[in-house]
Amino acid sequence: MTVLTEQSEKTQCWFCGSENAAEAQFCEACGKLQPSAPLDYFQFFGLPRRLQLDRVALEKQFYRLSRKLHPDVYARASAQEQQWSLEKSSLLNDAWRTLRDPLARTEYVLELEDIRLEEQSRDATDAAAASGTAKEQIVPPDLLEEVFELNMQLEEMRMAHASGENDPELQGNLEAAKQNFNAQLIAAEQQLQALWSEWDEAADANNPAAKQTAQQKMVDLLNRRSYIRNLVRDVQEVLGS
Ligand SMILES: [Zn+2]
After folding, report:
1. Which residues contact 20 (CB under 8 A, 6 or more apart)?
2. What's the CA-to-centroid distance between 85 and ligand 1, angstroms?
3. Band of the pLDDT at 58, cuts 50, 70, 90?
């Protein structure tokens, strides 16, 4: 079981000397707060690193930990324990914000797996610059035609606005395009959830090759999603002006 090996490290309680799991926030024997250890957000919550999360369990654990770690509880404790409670409370809030949000959680897991989405998009930007296109990101190949058409319509609409003309047909086309791209965003989110189970299964089976395959698909999907989001924003800007 991967979960057991992930959590098999032990540390000694600074107060009573009992052995605890390395990610334990409190000593199991004496209940004292333990030093801040370099834990990732999943370890901090005592959860296995998986993309499908039990939202209710996560929330319960968050409220339980925020009560127990709250700096007020340590008002009369040693300076060291006060410091730990501050550090842990702040880590708890970061972990909660990241893990409860499906997209932030996905990006965080990719980061833990050493995939930097920023680098991905920087590569994309460099490649676009090298090929002489002004776009910030590479156009997903299956969208090339649609994007070409859309950019023409956007340009036409900007010109119409500039000369104070009304073009209801063009306006209708752009609204339809926006709806279409919004539907593609929803589809991308559904595809992402399917990739979560693919990745989780690979992690359960301890299969690095299958994990990598799922990761690459997630990166492509997230890039596609952010590309489409920018398109929707462009259309919205032109329609709203
Ligand atoms: Zn102890």
Report:
1. 10, 11, 12, 13, 27, 28, 29, 34
2. 16
3. very high
Question: How remote is the C-alpha of 145 from its chain's centroid?
Answer: 29
Looking at domain 2-100, does it have CATH number 3.90.1230.10? no
Instruction: Give the CA count within 13 Å in the CB-facing half-sphere of 11.
Output: 17
Using one digit for the tens of pLDDT, what is the confidence trace for 8-27? 688 999 999 999 998 889 99
Ligand 1 centre to CA of 96 (Å) is 26
pLDDT, the chain, mean: 87
Structural domain spans, the chain: 2-100, 140-240
CA of 29 to the centre of ligand 1 (A): 5
N- to C-terminal Cα separation, the chain: 57
Token pair of 191, please? Answer: 């595809």
**pTM greater than the 0.70 cutoff:** yes
How many angstroms is it from 94 CA to the middle of ligand 1? 27
Of residues 187, 204, 178, the one with CA closest to residue 1? 204
Helix (H, G, I), strand (E, B) or coil at 223: helix
Residues paired with residue 11 on neighbouring β-strands, in sequence order: 20
